[in-house]
Structures are given as structure tokens and as C-alpha cells.
Design brief:
InterPro entries: GPCR_Rhodpsn, GPCR_Rhodpsn_7TM. Helix 1 packs antiparallel against helix 2, helix 3 crosses helix 4 and helix 3 runs antiparallel to helix 7. This protein has a two-stranded antiparallel sheet with strand order 1-2. 73% of the residues lie in helices and 2% in strands. By secondary structure, it is an all-alpha fold.
């Protein structure tokens, strides 16, 4: 971006074209689907799925994080269309902060879901105590606090920049590379790589437990497998490209020997990876649907509520005879 680029006029500005056309379209789609979808999810959990189970508490917190992120995107769409930031440096920092707060909050919520599911499947005898609602609530509060601590230093690193009488709200990796380099590495290792290892470890043990289970053909076990695959896909498809390209973007700004075309190519790939990281909101909507039959029934009951008023009791209430470890499976 701007003053951080060198030799910016002697090669094709592919990154600028992608930023001008790709980002507004992608952010608009994510914003509309994210706001409508997650608002509907939260309403369904509030109206149709009470009382909540442990998995429901995690899902609602994840939906809130997705909704906050999706609500911040229209501001970015306006910026990339007009190419001029008019809301001041504080709002610039706040909007960029929202993206990363959502990103690392989502990573930790999905990690919590993986850990709780591991306990439910691999250690069902301990699940009755460990999966109590108070522990789930504490875990979700911890996620919000840890994410805030992880991302807070970013507020002092993001800046606006004047360029050709226009103001630019710089994304995190386009700020001073000397400032963001080590913090970016620390954030990648502790905010992404470590949770990814925990998720892989959890689902490796879950797969082994399901494979040796005599009830491995039950629908609930199949849902666990599908959910496990979905979360791993989100970690690899959505989060991995962004973290790799963010590091390469900062590295390209640090090394003066990098050619203009190579720098612009890396920047273009980094721009492509940013909405990809936000697409986890789409996968999360599928996650709610796959979480169990009760959410699907509640969804259709909500959509057709006028003709199904008398049938919502089954959806709202969970049978008391359900085993504790099923709390994270259904």
C-alpha cells in the first residue's frame, strides 16, 4: 500500500484491481449472508431451543462473533468502492480490530467445541461433570477475554495513510513491517497454529474412539464425523491461507530486494486470502445445521411457525433422559 510500496509504477497493479473489485463483492456477500444467517441462528436459539445445552452456549457465542464481524463489513465495502476513508483513524482501527477479533475468537470457539466433543466421545464417564453449563459459560468468557488480549496490541499498530489527497485505512499487514513482523508471528503461532494442533489431536482421538465403538453406525456418530471434518476444513481452507499470506506480505515489505511484480503478486494473494478467512461464517452456518436434528427441526418450525405453533414444544425442550455425553454429540 501507498508509502510502503517501492517501484509501484513500473509493473501492472494487479493488487489494486483485486482490491477495487474483488473485496467489495466478497465483503458484500459475506455481510448480507452473515447478518441475516447469524441473526436468524441467534433468534432460533433464543426462541426455539431453550433450555440451552453446553453445545448450544458455544454455538450462540460463535454466532454473536460472526454477527459482529458481518455488521462491520459494510463500512469496508464503502471504503474499497470510494477508495477514500472518511471516518477517522479510530474507526479504522476499530473496523480492522473487528476482523481479527472475530477471526481469533472463532478459532478459539471451534477449538473449545472440539475439546468438549473429545471429552463427550472419548471420556463419557467424565462428561457429566466436565460438560456442565457453568464450565461452558466460563470457557466462552475465557475465549472473549483471551481474544481481546491477543488482539489489543493491534490497536496501536494500525494507521491511516494519506495518498494522492485520499485517505487509506491500512490493513494490519500493510502497516510498518518493522512494527508488525514479530507480533504477526506470535499471533500466528499462539492464535492459529496451537489451536490447530489441539483440534487435530482431539479429532484424532475422536476418530479412534468412534472407530472402535460398537455404535459407530448410529446417526449421532456420523454427525460427529461430519462436524469434525467441517471444522478441520474451516481451519485449513479459511484460516491457513490468510496466515501464510499475511506473513509473506509483511516479509515482502521488509526485504528491499523483492521486485515490484513479486511484491504486488504477494499482495494480491494476501488480498484474496482475507475474505476467504471471513468465509468461515458460511461454514459456521452449516455447523449449526449439522449440530443435531433439534436445530434443523427448530429452523423449519421457525420458518413455518404460523402453521406449526402446536409442534414447537418438542423442539424447545430437551428430554431429561438424554445421557450427559450426548450433549456435545446431538
Amino acid at each position: 500500500m501507498g508509502g510502503l510500496e517501492t517501484n509501484s509504477t513500473d509493473c501492472f497493479p494487479v493488487d489494486e484491481y483485486i482490491m477495487a473489485y474483488y473485496l467489495p463483492v466478497m465483503y458484500s456477500i459475506i455481510s448480507v449472508v452473515g447478518i441475516v444467517g447469524n441473526f436468524l441462528v441467534i433468534i432460533i436459539y433464543l426462541v426455539k431451543l431453550r433450555p440451552w445445552k453446553s453445545s448450544s452456549i458455544i454455538m450462540v457465542n460463535l454466532a454473536v462473533a460472526d454477527l459482529l464481524y458481518s455488521s462491520s463489513l459494510p463500512v469496508l465495502v464503502h471504503f474499497y468502492v470510494t477508495k477514500n476513508w472518511t471516518l477517522g483513524e479510530f474507526i479504522c482501527r476499530l473496523i480492522r480490530f473487528c476482523f481479527h477479533y472475530h477471526l481469533y475468537g472463532s478459532i478459539l470457539f471451534l477449538t473449545c467445541l472440539s475439546i468438549f466433543r473429545y471429552i463427550a466421545v472419548v471420556h463419557p464417564l467424565k462428561a457429566a461433570e466436565i460438560l456442565r453449563k457453568r464450565w461452558t459459560i466460563l470457557a466462552c468468557l475465557a475465549v472473549w477475554v483471551i481474544s481481546l488480549v491477543e488482539i489489543s496490541p493491534m490497536l496501536g499498530m494500525i494507521t491511516v495513510q494519506q495518498e494522492d489527497k485520499m485517505t487509506k485505512c491500512l490493513d494490519f499487514a500493510s502497516n510498518d513491517p518493522q512494527v508488525v513482523w514479530w507480533y504477526g508471528w506470535i499471533l500466528t503461532m499462539f492464535g492459529y497454529v496451537f489451536p490447530l494442533l489441539v483440534v487435530c489431536w482431539s479429532y484424532t482421538h475422536i476418530a479412534g474412539s468412534l472407530g472402535s465403538s460398537i455404535s459407530r453406525n448410529q446417526p449421532s456418530r456420523s454427525r460427529v464425523r461430519m462436524l469434525s471434518i467441517l471444522i478441520l476444513v474451516v481451519f485449513v481452507l479459511c484460516f491457513l491461507p490468510y496466515h501464510i499470506m499475511r506473513l509473506l506480505r509483511v516479509d515482502s515489505l521488509l526485504r528491499p530486494a523483492v521486485s515490484c511484480m513479486q511484491r504486488r503478486g504477494i499482495h494480491a494473494a494476501y488480498i484474496l486470502s482475507r475474505p476467504l478467512a471471513g468465509l468461515n461464517t458460511f461454514f459456521n452456518l452449516a455447523l449449526y445445521t449439522l449440530a443435531g436434528d433439534k436445530f434443523q427441526q427448530a429452523f423449519w418450525s421457525f420458518v413455518h411457525r404460523k402453521g406449526h405453533t402446536s409442534s414447537t414444544i418438542f423442539v424447545i425442550h430437551c428430554p431429561n433422559k438424554e445421557r450427559p455425553h450426548e450433549d456435545l454429540i446431538h
